[in-house]
Amino acid sequence: QQVQTSQMNVKIHSNNFLKLLTASSNLYQSISLVSSIDLHNGLKLDATLIMLNSESMNVGFAKDLWHSCQTTLCADGGANRLYDGGIDFENGLKMVPTYIIGDLDSLRPEVEEHYRLLGSKIIKDEDQESNDLDKAISLAKQLIQNKEYVKDHTIIILGAYGGRFDQEIASFHSLYKWRGTFHSIILLCNSCTSFLLESDYKHIIHPINELEGPTCGLIPLAGKVDHIKTTGLVWNLNDESLEFGRRISTSNSIVKDASAVEVQADNDIIWTST
After folding, report:
1. What is the pLDDT along the chain (274 residues), one digit of tens a residue?
2. Among 52, 93, 153, 268, which one is least packed by beta carbons within 10 Å?
3. Backbone angles phi, psi at 262, to 5 degrees
């Protein structure tokens, strides 16, 4: 989970949920911490998991994360991916979304009927001014019962990479569109995580060293960053500028065994680690 503190305008990030991912992908093949976590203790992450319709998604690697989130949503055809994954477990836990939402132009009839019978709620939203991911994020916000804690909530988007490039960009667009609404929106795939670092804060990122990095990047996706300072990277930035067409920070690295990476910038910037 991630924790936010208002002292000194600091936001703290720690992707502890990565410990719930099964070691079945390139990023997580060397370690699995799932056996040390009791999935039946009734505790839930303060997070919503949204599954997208991505061809490159490995459904199985997130099975324990799925059962540990407060709410699980499929954005339209994401339910097809879940269904086609055919994930059943010896302990009887099945990956059944709480909701399936979208214009439902991709949801196959047999998939809709399957999850409806298992208790999923199906919401058809034909608004063409918003994509299915935005519809899912909007629903996630509505479902948080205590509205005072919306800003403490994390949205984890599974399947944000791979497939159509315009849909990948739409996933990154959501980071900016929903800026400041939640503690963080995290784009997750089998090999990396990405999230937005808002210029309102100094960000302290505590990497899960055995699961994150060392490769990382800082991407000025929405415009020039005139001033950015970092610590904890092999190639730190010291009050430097980043801008597409001039210079961006890719293929950087987290210092070995670093307990924290600090980033402060005068414009929003994407943090990504692999």
Report:
1. 344 444 558 999 988 888 777 544 444 433 333 333 333 345 578 899 999 998 777 777 788 888 889 999 999 999 999 998 866 554 556 889 999 999 999 999 999 999 999 999 999 999 989 999 999 999 999 998 777 778 889 999 998 987 789 999 999 999 999 999 999 999 998 778 999 999 999 999 999 877 888 999 999 999 999 999 999 999 999 999 999 999 999 999 999 988 999 999 999 999 999 8
2. 93
3. -110, 135
Look up tokens 């324990």; give the residue: 64
